[in-house]
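Two proteins, back to back. First:
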Amino acid sequence: MLLSGGGRTLENICDEIDAGRLDAEVAVVITSRQCKGIARAEARGLTVHLVPYKEMPDIEMYSARIVELLDAAGVGLVIQAGFLSLWHIPPQYDQRVMNIHPALLPKFGGRGMWGHHVHEAVLAAGETESGCTVHFVTNEYDAGPIILQRTAPVQPGDDADALAARVFAQECIAYPQAIRLFAAGKLSVRNGAVVIAE
């Protein structure tokens, strides 16, 4: 799992594993900066590596360090959980990196669209519905093939915090669901779109 923030998504995935609803193991946690997620990961006995983006000379060396750690841990699937640093995904990890975005892509995606920036943009646009999108990650922001989406209504009087809480509740359902589909070998990409096997 790659994270840069509080680690709530990490907690959700670990809770699903502990409850027996998700047949997976968190092999390694990589963070791009000091954050609350480190303490949450360490409290669960997980191996954590801090790889500060700003301390690397360029994106290629940064990406190489991440891949080195993933390879060493024998990772089958990479889960981005609020990971805010761009890294170049090598061919061997194609369709093996997932992200969850707090909006219904392709709306409200792209560079700079993360966290509250997304929810504020949704509210400013007068949308009546938002939600979350789980997608495979490519080397272009929020442009990878969509695996699944879940919706959440925008309520009158919502601020970014209220909308964020409603969307996060859907994220807690969507991400484990997508990981289960991957683990069951039910996801493939054809002509740039995800196909889910029956």
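And the second protein:
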Amino acid sequence: MDKLRQMEAFVTAVDAGSLAKAALQLGVTPAMLGRHVDALERRLGAKLLHRSTRHLGLTEQGSVFLEQCRKLLLDLAAAEELMSEGRRTATGHLRITAPAGFGRSHVAPHAPAFLAAHAQVQVSFDLTDRVVDLVREGYDMGIRIGNVLDPNMVAIKLWRNQRVVCASPGYLERHGIPRKLSDLERHNCLAFNPQGGQVGGWYFQDKGKLVTLRVRGNLDCNDGELLHRWAAEGLGLAWRSTWEIQAELLSGALVTVLDDYAIADYDIRAVYPQQRNVPAKVRFFIEHLKQVYAAPGYWVM
């Protein structure tokens, strides 16, 4: 940094024609600017300027060194401009992972519009319900639904969401409406199994505490869309996100139960590894999704 400051002082002094004018341009005192030039000459072991109270003149060595300094400072300015442009312009290969159902319906379909505005970006999607290690597997960002607990990740809320228990009116007419969590024991629960038929629990808020319940039913699956369809067909209760069932809730094809126990903070978030400078391709895609999701009527299409 000192070397660059010294060279900048030298070039500015030559261009301005005096230490006083150069100091004014750089926002320092003439004495400080003179010390920078002195330090440069000492470091180089060469006299660069002939100085008097009214005039500055280049020595022969100073003339040669001046051109090298100009080139170096111009290259530095160009490099800084390139980095600044990189923050304003999205470029490169953007690798995104998202839950299969949500990614298929609400992430990947919005890539073409993003690419139309950012032609220098290539986008790749990995749509999977597996929780992906973004850093180890080389992804730029991921979409997560629910709590994000990894302290090494930055999480940006894209849209509000809840997890609710739902069923068709026909199912509830035949089997009754559950009023408390213990009532789930006598209902056919359509559960998500992440792998190998191991059914995960359903999460609820009960008197300020998080409660996990193991549920049972005659159907389970690792595909959320199929669980959604089974619930609409009256085959049982399902624990689904509001983004997924909004249309059926509005039409009455599905109704929610146990609403007093629902987890409110189960939002849709974009996550990416903590880093000092977030790539423009990541920042701009996140902003693109936020604008899409905030459009009036989007979630009730």
